[in-house]
Write a sequence for this structure.
């Protein structure tokens, strides 16, 4: 997927949006994603391999998501902030997995939960 085809709406969102292609090359980072990675020593990782920044357990999850086209969601706490991490495969128009999308959202201290039927 060409960078210019990626939506501009993701750029200013108040959550980190990172996209890689099927070869695990980072092809898009919104502003918040760049800020997050800048804190780790590198703001613009476009073109870098996503696997370079993950441990063996995470690499296996990434491989599975790319093979099966699935979704992985979990919460973490880091530096006093709770975050929800949502990782999902994105598909090419022909249906093949084109890569992965990760959205990292900072959660408030209290988060309402509603049951709707």
């Amino acid at each position: 997927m060409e960078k210019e085809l990626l939506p501009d709406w993701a750029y200013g969102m108040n959550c980190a949006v990172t996209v890689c292609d099927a070869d695990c090359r980072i092809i898009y980072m919104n502003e918040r994603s760049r800020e997050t990675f800048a804190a780790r020593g590198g703001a613009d990782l476009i073109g870098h391999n996503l696997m370079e920044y993950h441990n063996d357990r995470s690499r296996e999850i990434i491989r599975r998501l790319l093979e099966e086209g699935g979704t992985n969601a979990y919460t973490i706490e880091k530096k006093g902030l709770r975050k929800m991490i949502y990782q999902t495969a994105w598909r090419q128009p022909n249906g093949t997995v084109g890569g992965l999308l990760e959205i990292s959202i900072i959660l408030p201290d209290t988060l309402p939960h509603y049951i709707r039927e």
Notes: The mean pLDDT is 89. The beta strands are 16-21, 26-29, 71-78, 81-91, 97-107. The radius of gyration is 15 Å.
